[in-house]
Write a structure and sequence with these properties.
Elements (H helix, E strand, L loop, with lengths): L1 H26 L7 H25 L10
Helix pairs in contact: 1-2
Organism: Paraglaciecola psychrophila 170
Protein name: DUF2909 domain-containing protein
InterPro entries: DUF2909
Length: 69
């Protein structure tokens, strides 16, 4: 259950960074932080999510769905 909460929180953080980058792109303020900072956080978060899911499947904390046949 902890893994699911952690992945859900990381997904929300990823979406937050996506919208933060969008607001910077639309604002076009020269004093704002670079948009690549938030896009980079989003990419790093998605890599952490994939690694966490692979680790959880490998250790048996979560089990994938069985094949439908």
């Amino acid at each position: 259950m902890l893994i699911k909460i952690l992945v859900g929180g990381l997904l929300l953080f990823m979406v937050f960074n996506l919208f933060k980058a969008m607001m910077i792109m639309l604002k076009d303020d020269p004093n704002s932080p670079p948009m690549s900072k938030f896009i980079g956080r989003r990419v790093l978060t998605s890599a952490i999510i994939v690694g966490l899911i692979l680790l959880a499947v490998a250790t048996g904390l979560i089990t994938p769905n069985p094949t439908p046949h």
